[in-house]
C-alpha cells in the first residue's frame, strides 16, 4: 500500500477516553511497574482531513508533537505516504494525570487508521505508542491492568460498575513521565502489598463490588501520598467516613484526587449534596466525573 488512493473514505474520525488516574498503581514482587485504569467519560476526538496535494500531515494544535511522531511511525510501519490535516479536540485537561496525551495519540491513530481502513487493534496501538512514550492503557475501553513503562497489556478486568467521582484539582501540572522516572523504588513489603491488592481488585471488579474497589483505591492513594504529596488529601480521607462514599481515588502521577460514590445508592443525592457543601465550606472547587 504505497500511498493513499481514491476509494478511501472522505474523513477519518475517532475518539479515545481519558482515565481518572488509577485505581491502583505500584510495583509487583517481580519488579514490574503496573497500573489499573479507571476510564471516565472525558474524551479526546481526532479528525483527519486528507489532502492529496501533499505528503505531509499537519497536526492541530501544533504543540501535539507526540501525535505527529505516532502518526509518522504508523505510516512508516505500513509503508504509506499520506498528507492532510489532523485536528484534535480534547475535553481532557493536560498535566493532571487524566491520560490526556495518551488519549490524543490513541484517538489520532484510530482516526487515521479508520481513514485508511488499516487493521488496527489495541496491540498495534501499543506498538506505535511504545516508540513514543509510556502509556496509560487507554487504547482499551474497559478496565485493564497495564505495564505502563513497557506499554504492554497485563490483563483485562472488564467493565467497572457505574460510579460518580467528585474530585478536586490540587493545582499545578505534573510531567508523569519524568515523575515515574524519578520515583523511588518500592520496598519488598510494599510490592507484596500491591500484589495482594491487585488480586483483591480483580475479585472486586468481577463481583462489581464498588465498596471493595474503593477500599483498594484508597490504600493505593495512601501509599502514594509520600511519593507525590497531594493537598486536600486529609479532607478526602475524612469523606470516607460517610457510608455512601466508597473510597478515595487519585492520579498517582498527576494532580487530581476524588471520592467515589455509587450513583445507585439510595442516599446518593443527599450524600452528594452534603459533600458539595463540605467542598464549599473548605473553599475547594468540585469537579464531577462519571464513567457512564
Describe the model.
Strand 3, helix 1 (65-77) and strand 4 (84-90) form a beta-alpha-beta unit. Strands 1, 2, 3, 4, 5 and 6 form a six-stranded mixed beta sheet that branches. The chain has a four-stranded antiparallel beta sheet with strand order 8-9-7-10. The chain is globular, with a radius of gyration of 20 Å. With 292 residues, it is of the alpha+beta class. The chain has helices at 65-77, 100-116, 122-130, 176-182, 188-207, 210-224, 233-239, 268-281, and strands at residues 12-27, 33-50, 57-60, 84-90, 143-147, 152-158, 164-169, 245-250, 256-261, 287-290. The chain folds into two domains: 12-156, Ribosomal Protein S5, domain 2 (2-Layer Sandwich), CATH 3.30.230.10; 159-290, 2-Layer Sandwich (Alpha-Beta Plaits). Helix 1 (65-77) packs parallel to helix 2 (100-116) and helix 5 runs antiparallel to helix 6. The longest helix is centred in the last third of the chain and has 20 residues, at 188-207. It is built from eight helices and ten strands.
